[in-house]
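Schema walk-through. Below, the input block comes first and the output block second. Nothing else is stored per chain. Lengths vary across the set, and this one has 571 residues.
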Amino acid sequence: MTDKVPAAREDLAIVLGGEAGQGIQTIEFLLARVLKRSGYHVFSTKEYMSRIRGGSNSILIRVSTERVNATVDRIDILMPLDARSLDRLSGRITPHTVIIGDRRKLATDRPVVDAPTLSMAEDIGDRIFENTVAVGVLSGVLDADEETLIATVRQFFAEKDEAVIDRNVEAARVGYGRGRDLREEGSVSVGVARTQEAAEEPLINGAEAVAFGAIAGGCNFVSSYPMSPSTAVLINMAARDETFGIIVEQAEDEIAAVNMAVGAWYAGARAMVTTSGGGVALMGEGVSLAGMLETPLVIHLAQRPGPATGLPTRTEQGDLELALYSGHGEFPRIVYAPGTTEEAFTLVQRAFNEADRCQVPVFILTDQYFMDSYYNIAALPVENVSIRKYFIQTASGYRRYAVTESGISPRGIPGFGDGLVTADSDEHDESGHITEDMGIRTTMVNKRLRKMEAVIEGSFPPLLAGPQNFENLVVTWGSTYPIVSEAFRRTAPGKTAHMHLGQVFPLPPEARDYLGRAGKIRVVENNATSQLGRLLKLHGEVMPADPLLKYNGLPFSVEEVSAALVKWDGG
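--- output ---
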């Protein structure tokens, strides 16, 4: 018999593995919701190969008494649905890992708590029900509410015929009974507390947060060519298009998508494109067009490992410099990189206001790990939502590119007023007419660049955690934020503080202050060349020390960062 999970543990890491096509994502969807609705704080994320069949996929679900929103290496309970996933996850298995599975299928020397999911599914009528049996087993082991399990299964399969629904309900009940027996026999011990508060909270992932933020920002036009992991935002907005009056356009390619968005802003809409790195590579000319036209533009870039197709279903933070330098020529831009779903909601809705106010492209950087990770939250910060529109009603003699002290010209909309709203990709004068006058060229370049001062004045400040009199500073951006935050809570470094940049470019004034006070600066990021480190050197005028980098397609774990923090704080 394997060792029990310690009864006092109030944070369990549960991993399920199986082949692509075995319904691993269905298990994640159902189990995360059953556990959350039963009153547990939940975090879930997935790792999957870019294959419809044959790949080895896994999901991690953390169940905790406290809020959790980061991935860990530790496995407390492992349920492998095939022998291959057991081998692939072997490096994370410890003597305290409880393996629950079908002994007949696994053929391993490791101790296994028997839960014959395949034979139970076959008894119900088809091995296809094995994933639902697995959901039931783990729900029983974790003492989830049985009726909540059944209701969630019914809801998930509601569009199937009644016979399919009934079979899946039976599979869930049979699995639940086996899991309950294992818990009552003492084969598995669980010490996680349930709360009504968690049961009533929303469970949300990064893709939903981006979509909701766009809606809160007044987005009424979204164009995209499908590309993982960004497509989920397009799907979420398409599901709500009639409710919120959004035009959702699946374009023929990324070039068309960005040009549609530029045209939509010109016509008075609030538009967004959602894509990944390869899509932004194709959109470069459209980004530059927005820079010349001084048209607002919001681009959601969900990163994945490159170059080229790279690892299309894995995660990386390799496109920061793509966002910084996309589009030929020189013109201002803003780059946001949310670290939590709450921050994503805030920054995406903010992106529309700032793009409108400063008439610049705004990039929102996420990644596959962020997009696909779920956790429950108290609420989205809707109290701070405000849709601010900055266009004017034009008068006769209106000059679209009037030179102003701030560099921001009054923006008119065609048909709204008596003025002529001109747009051209060539250099132009204040009225928007093409020119090759060298003096006007210099004036217009300077006018566009002056807008950066307004961008900086409206910066989104960084978050700082740890001692105010810090000696060392760890800097994060995007999805590494909650992972590093949990590592800080675990290690409680005495001389090190943590700064998270939700706005990566331009660097907020507060960030410059924190950087200037630090003795040693270290960056944690999911890429090979420390792209943020180079940005801090170039724009923050500091020299980061040895960074913590990871670029194998997987996110950092809390354990990896904790080990680095202990080392850094001591040195």
